[in-house]
User: Fold these one by one.
Assistant:
Number 1:
Amino acid sequence: MEALKQRVKELLALAQVKAVLGYTKGTGDRRRPLFIRAAGQVDQLVLDEACTQNLAAYATKREVKQLGKVAVISLPSTQRALLQLMAERQLRDGEVVVLAVDGSEIKEITSASALEEHLARKVTHLDSEDKATLERLAAMSREERWGFWRKELSRCMKCYACRNSCPMCYCEQCTMDCNRPQWVPVASHAFGNLEYHMVRTMHLAGRCVECGECGRACPVGIPVHLLTYCTEESVHEQFGQCAGRTAKLDYALATFKADDQESFIR
Ligand code: SF4
Ligand code: SF4
């Protein structure tokens, strides 16, 4: 931790970055994002198992971009998101310094190709609760799965914490917020909730970096991250594409091959 704090101070002192995104103490045992712009803030840095938020969600915000080059203290899921954001041209190659934390080791990554190489060795880990839910879902019939998600999503109160915490939901104006015309009902009710989640899941198909942040952010405990996880896995199986592994734009739903199957067209 001391080595990390020292490096953060150096990056700021040498003006190599304008700010460093990390974590600090939040309410209770929680952690919250910290935007370090001066050496005096460095002692507020915290890095432990409670630091789970995907900080890549801030890297594309207008207020952060206006600062100039930033460094991001990051876990593998944040690194995957940063690489996917580069692939989608939301971040320029070299715009962000990635401070990759792996146990006591801190690696400084400054280019998309180096980040790609670093991530080639990483795998996604689901926790035991997620694995159990996925196994339960896999054992269900299609009708039972539909019933499971209808019931879960009926509890949604449309707070949009899932969307706002997601690094890949970066549109400045979301369709959900449009009221002229209003595509999706604002009120929280079963049909509108389904519409919101179906639209969001499809927008993230092949783009979700499986960080789980949307599920953790949900105040009523709906496992929305498993919806996007399953869609991501399905895109991987069908098209061999994996979000957050390459800086090359490789978006399955925006490309086609002449020999793609068309059996779904009736
Ligand atoms: S797990 Fe959720 S928050 Fe993370 S990238 Fe996927 S949709 Fe976004
Ligand atoms: S965070 Fe939960 S309650 Fe809020 S919009 Fe998302 S699913 Fe609904």
Number 2:
Amino acid sequence: MKIGIIGAGNVGSGLGKRLATSGHELCFSYSRDPAKLDALVASIGTSARSGTPEEAARFGEVVLLAMTWTQVPDAIAQIGDAADGKIVWSAVNAVNSTMTGLAIGTTTSAAEEIARLLPTSNVVEGIPCNAEILHSPSLDFGADRPGAFVCGDDPQARQIVLSLLSDVGLAPTDAGPLVAARLIEPTGFLIAYLAYAQGMGGANTAMKLLRRNTA
Ligand SMILES: NC(=O)c1ccc[n+]([C@@H]2O[C@H](COP(=O)([O-])OP(=O)(O)OC[C@H]3O[C@@H](n4cnc5c(N)ncnc54)[C@H](OP(=O)(O)O)[C@@H]3O)[C@@H](O)[C@H]2O)c1
């Protein structure tokens, strides 16, 4: 698929490199330093290009948002109408500017607020595990792989993001409608808290849903 990536930091570059390895075409955007985008594109090769956020969103069949919560309004303003009618895959967690907690939660979420800002897009949340893991040579945790919870109001759009996260090498779970994001985002921050504030290590800490097969 063609994927426009808005935000090419830890998460955008980590997902992008793995998506390129799986055969997807990418357009990276959104940096204060265009040379960073150029270097990332050069490290991936001909399946990647760079552009403005508007160009990346026009390029993508899916538009991946991978910027900090505080930058969401600016990034969306730069996208303009280019993501209208498209699947917008949000990897954004509503982490506050001091990275000590969530700026919003329990009654709404980053994904739900993004859906309000992009009312004609099909917003699906798919926050990956720690970016450090995405940049690790292996995603293996013994026999397991890190999970990711995917939610969104359109089941077909959800399936596409589930499939893209599987292509990345994760083991995602379909969590149903977008409202689940208000439960998923605190869980994502819990993993960051354990990995960094509690010292478990970003490259060694992930989560995955365990389900007993009762069939
Ligand atoms: N890091 C993790 O482990 C992790 C895990 C799960 C979810 N998340 C979520 O994923 C999202 C991205 O996190 P991240 O760690 O990838 O963040 P990051 O490394 O800081 O990347 C943010 C991106 O936004 C760009 N940016 C920031 N301010 C900008 C501005 N004023 N103008 C233009 N571009 C600007 C940065 O470009 P430059 O810096 O090059 O200017 C960079 O490309 C966040 O919402 C976070 O909560 C992160």
